[in-house]
Amino acid sequence: MTLSPLVLALLGVVAALWLIAGVWAVAWGLRRGLAARAAESEAARLAALLRTGPALLLELASDGRCTADLRLYDRLGIERFPRFLTDLPPDTFEEGEASALLALAQAALRGAPPEARTMHVAGSSRVLLVEARAAPNGGASLWWFDLTERARAEERLAREVERLSQTLDAVAALIEAAPFPMWYRGPDLKLALVNQAYVRAVEAADAEDAIARGLELVEGSAGKGPLSAAAAARESGQIAERTAPATIAGQRRTVRIVDVPLGPTGVAGYAVDVGDLEEARGDLVRFARAQRDAYDRLSAGVALFGADRGLAFYNQPFLRLFALQPDWLADRPEFDRVLDRLRETGRAPESRDFPRWKAERRQWFTAEAVAEEAWLLPGGRHIRVVPQPTPDGGLLLIFEDRTEQVQLASARDTLLQVRNATFDSLFEAVGVFAADGRLNLWNRRFRDVWGLSEAELATHPRVDALVDAIGARLATPSRAGLLRELVRIATVERQARSGRVSLADGRHFEFAAVPLPDGNALFTMLDITAGRQIEEALRGRTEALEQADRLKTAFVANMSYELRVPLTSIGGFAEMLAGGYAGDLSETAGDYVQAILLSVTRLSGLIDDVLDLTQSDAGTLALAEEAVDLAAVARAAADEAAARAKERRLDFVVDVDGSVGVSRGDERRLKQAIDHLLRNAVGYTQPGGRVLFRARGDEREIEIVVSDNGPGIPEAERARVFDRFHRGSSAPGEGRAAAGLGLPLARRFAEAHGGTVELISEVGEGTAVILRLPRRA
């Protein structure tokens, strides 16, 4: 069959078209395959995203059928999700939440806007967020988000927020109640917050008033005010402190301002009143200075080491005690170096292991309680060391040189031993009673006198017990209580008592109770038995001597009267012979008669003196009371003595002042007293010597002085010159002065007038006798 070209052309066109269509179909198929694979890949990717996404999908068809992600089963704690949402068990969620879920799904099915709700799975802490959205096919999609961890985090954050809120409230309350001003500046450095102390300091009505008016606590000039200081602190990022004067509540005070930068939010600050602190610091400085001045005045050495263990202070006794150089100490040597130097100079105690010894002393800095030590230095010096750690970590050392005290203590111990040995060897019985009446000390003699054993005394019995023990040994047992009374008087009343006591064996004792300075009482007993016997014998002898003296005095008085009669007759006949009644006498006979008259005169004077002394001893010396011109009496006595002085070739000087005046008394006796003094001076002065007679007076008394440059009176004889019939070793061979009656009579006459006689004498220098008479006797 032959085809026409047209047909062939048509067939060719059809075949070409068919080929093109096939090629297009293949290309379209390939493109669809690629799109399908891309869609499948995208679907897989989306499915993977859904699987890994934070939300689980629950699809609702328009008829309410459910299609849920398998993972939602685990989230809800169910084995399988029901076909319809209404079939969901009501106990899946907490009460009321299941119905709320249904209402949320129905609203989405009706095309309501998306809405979310939090669901709590019953029986667990899981929290889910359900977001319902309407689907384009008339259904709905419920997206479930697990908010359990976020809920927990939110709960923790809520608690933290609550805690921070409470803390902030507490801090705010603390800031508000702070006793010192505090403030906060905002980013513009203007006041944004102040406390009540700030309000009171600037005298504002309240905090709002202080902030609104911008009342600053510290005044300042441009560039130096509080704002510039706060800006500088913010720029530096460092806490800044400064001290400035401020007016707080109307008073000018010194405050320390602290600015605390808070980053871009602002600057906080507070002010502390340091006026009292500055005063306290000044007081502390003054106290430290006064303390160091006190250390300088101590006799003990003081060394103060600081917290760095360097020597911070020392006084002069420390310097002298350890012989250290001030230049070396000025470099503040450390504690160890000081100990090393002490060892080098021989001022540290000997130690076998010095490093260990030094390490032990180094612990003084940190020890809570340190005991004092005694250092025995080479050479026998004893040092008492008192270490005291200081609160600042330093150490105070006090060195006291106790060498002398130790030596004194040793000497005291020796003296105590000697005292105890002496105490026990005393012949007296000695006992020491304490204030409570107990016997503290006793000697061997005390024990033997009362017949007590050492065991009994070792119990230190009270005086009451001793009274019962010694009563039987007394001659009069009832007097045993006297011991108790003596101890009480000596210890309580602090009075001394003494007396005598006799024992039953015939012995006699003299006792004494004496209070001691320490409150104790010393009781002593001295055996006077032999003395008592001698005393009785002496008493009998004394009575015999006194009787003999009375007989002698009576004999002298009687003999004096008896001698006057023949002496008067002798004198009378001698005067008759001298007067020529028996005829003229030869020259030799006349001399004899004159010698007889002179002897009669001397003997009469001696008899008169003896009678005066006798009457004075008997108290029968008669004295006249009349006005006496003592100046005239003194001159008359001087005139009589001048003749005798001339005979002995003496330089006799008389000085009677007009102030002597008049006194009352017996003129004859006063003249006798002056005569005796002058006669005594003239008689004892060697030829060529000098005698001074001087008389003065004032409104109260009259003083008469008779002095000479004779041989003087030895000291051993001065106490006896006023005894009757005493003759000095340099007495003259004749005259009434040699009889030893002049000075005793002068003294008796002076004392009878209320006066005194005082004798001053030096061997080889002479003698002076001072007679003092009152103006009115």
TrEMBL record:
Matches recorded under SMART domains: HATPase_c, HisKA
SUPFAM superfamilies xrefs: ATPase domain of HSP90 chaperone/DNA topoisomerase II/histidine kinase (SSF55874), Homodimeric domain of signal transducing histidine kinase (SSF47384), PYP-like sensor domain (PAS domain) (SSF55785)
Reactions accelerated catalytically: ATP + protein L-histidine = ADP + protein N-phospho-L-histidine
Keyword Glycosyltransferase: no
Histidine kinase domain location: 558-777
Keyword field contains Transferase: yes
Coiled-coil regions listed in the entry: none
Sample GO molecular function, one term: phosphorelay sensor kinase activity
CDD domains: HATPase, HisKA
Origin: domain of life: Bacteria
Name this polypeptide is given: histidine kinase
Keywords: Kinase, Phosphoprotein, Transferase, Two-component regulatory system
Entry's EC annotation: 2.7.13.3
